[in-house]
Amino acid sequence: MATQSAPYQRELIFGAAIRIFHWLRALAIFVLIVTGFYIAWPFLVAPENSDVLVQGYIRAAHQIFGFVLVAITIVRAYLFFFGKSDIERRSFKDVMSVKSWITQLKSYLWMGHLDKAGVYGPLQFVTYLAISVVALLICITGLVLYANVYHEGLGGLIAPMANWLTALMGGLAPVRIWHHYLTWVFIIFVVIHVYMAVWSGIRFKHNSVDSIVSGYDYHKKK
Ligand code: HEM
């Protein structure tokens, strides 16, 4: 049980929606990378084999999790702008302040403390913004690929837009290649993201990884 003299202070930083969507998105990205690479190189079916079910199931999983990612990308953008807590939005103040950038970069080099207006430092905020744009682009290229195969329902509805984008990108092959390149951006991001989450928890004596599970941050009392 926490006592009055405990040196650490507990603070709720992430609400349930943000935590649930974080892990759902992590699961979707993991499944999409694995199934996407299989679609690109379907090694389990020999070329002369007419049994295409393996590929079919894997493509189905890719599309299901693809639509999960599309939904999360929309909901997450909504939560950022209109969520009850402004702890994420407040970080934008630091992005616009040169002083905050210098403070963060110095603190990463073990010089001084990291003082933030919100929950993210400026470099972290800009990185998350960039990966959100990449998520949007991979969703758009994924939907363009989808619309080229499924001509009814949603596929038919977005076909005019998908055809326009396909022409703009120089054909379906470049759309596929961009979808593939963007996959690598996610792989590189995930490695750096996990490393930085663990590192910053140790460097700044916060429980950064736990907070996206429990919602709570623990830090020394000021
Ligand atoms: C992190 C997210 C995603 C990753 C890592 C990913 C990865 C991939 C990869 C590597 C391929 C194979 C490309 C190639 O042939 O070289 C692919 C194909 C495809 N992806 Fe995604 N994808 C993602 C999201 C989405 C989304 C959101 C959708 C749409 C709902 C989608 C729909 C498709 C479709 C329709 C194909 C083509 C399947 C086929 O040609 O049979 N993907 N994806």
Automatic annotation (TrEMBL):
One of its GO terms (cellular component) is plasma membrane. InterPro entries: Cyt_b561_bac/Ni-Hgenase (IPR011577), Di-haem_cyt_TM (IPR016174), Hydrogenase_cytochrome (IPR051542), Ni-dep_Hydgase_cyt-B (IPR000516). The keyword Transmembrane helix applies. GO terms for biological process: respiratory electron transport chain. It is a multi-pass membrane protein. It is found in: Cell membrane. The keyword Glycoprotein does not apply. Residues 14-215 form the Cytochrome b561 bacterial/Ni-hydrogenase domain. GO terms for molecular function: electron transfer activity; heme binding; iron ion binding. Keywords: Cell membrane, Electron transport, Heme, Iron, Membrane, Metal-binding, Transmembrane, Transmembrane helix, Transport. The chain crosses the membrane at residues 20-44, 64-83, 125-147, 153-174, 181-202. Pfam families: Ni_hydr_CYTB. Belongs to the HupC/HyaC/HydC family. This is Ni/Fe-hydrogenase, b-type cytochrome subunit.
